[in-house]
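Researcher: Next sequence.
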Amino acid sequence: MLGLKLATDPRWVNIVESNIEEILTDHAWCEQKAASNAISLVTYNSELEELVTEMLVIAREELEHLQMVHDLIKKRGLTLGRERKDHYVNELFKFMKKDGSRKDALCDRLLFSAMIEARSCERFKVLSENIKDEELATFYRDLMISEAGHYTTFLGFARKYKDNIDIDKRWKEWIEFEGSIITNYGKSETVHG
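Model: Next structure:
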């Protein structure tokens, strides 16, 4: 369904298990950034009522996920660390087209968002199927379903708002680009790292 070029090596979970506090902190900040992204889409596209409505739903869900991760961190006696840079997302951001019409920029921002959600969904699936901690396995299985819904929402809006863009062609370019950079990741105890 996700069409990603390269699957995450399940051994990445061994790295994650070596530092649960780090993955949870990184995950919390990923949720905060996802909520901020949805709110930015609202801010810059306030005239698109259907998009605004759905982005507000996503922003709320992402904040709920942040709350869930924070609750898990507290329950385990851990500490929410400082925000981390997400080098994977930063590389994807550089690939995003910033020229053309407002609609063109919106469509690429939606594809950028779909790409992040697709990889997050895939990583949560790998965690849910391979982590020994049963509470975390269930937690990530539930979040995987939510991320898949966000992925399809972003992709659906890109298709809806395209003007002169071949969205399927551009999505394939995103998939190819992501496949070329993901080989640099999966080596640290972060969601995308």
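Model: The chain has a mean pLDDT of 95. DSSP finds seven helices and no strands in the chain.
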